[in-house]
Design goal:
This protein is α/β, with parallel strands linked by helices. The chain is built from nine helices and ten strands.
Length: 243
Amino acid sequence: MNTPVYRIRQLLKAYNGRRVLQIEHLDIQRGEAFAIVGPSGAGKSTLLRLLNFLELPTAGKIYFEATEFSATQEVPVEIRRRVTTVFQRPMLLNRSVWANVHYGLGLRGQHNATERTLAALEKVGLDSLKHQPARTLSGGEAQRVALARAMVLEPDVLLLDEPTANLDPYNISLIEKTVQGLNHEHNTSLVFVTHNIFQARRLAQRVALLLDGQIIEVASVEDFFENPRDPRTAAFVNGETVY
């Protein structure tokens, strides 16, 4: 039986009294690739920020393994370091590609930082650009730098927020292949938000539909796309507008 890396219980997130997320119960298993889909404004990115401990819940709890995260209980830095996020619009240092990927390892004082940096750059196909200023990169190249910067830290959980939005097919394929390798070869837990249901189908083992801040359905990829239980899931899968 799989062990949950996250357990969400009675979770509520509100801004100025407006509820944006309310999840009664959700488990995300260690080592799985878990996709979160839904229309814009459904609360997907908010959920990722909570899973990365970037915001406090308004109420309820998130357990990272045995560690509790709540409105009154933050998690220690050693737990935070086990989770890394790649955002849709990466914020890179105004330095070289190498410096961007090496930066986190340097802060942590890793003894093998040079070897790990080079290996990460090779995995995302950027070793030939390691001395190039990050500001000169294309959008796809910048996103690959952001992915290398995350994966070089060897996180237990990699969170991805629309990691291939507006990228060309080559960069989409390379990023998907890289994160699949992390999941299959290193048992890295992947939790990713995507508007692309085809991407969810390619990468995920389970998929959740988030609508108006609430989980409508969670199912295996096959059941989610072929035998959805909820009519709103069926409508979403069929490309219909769902609110």
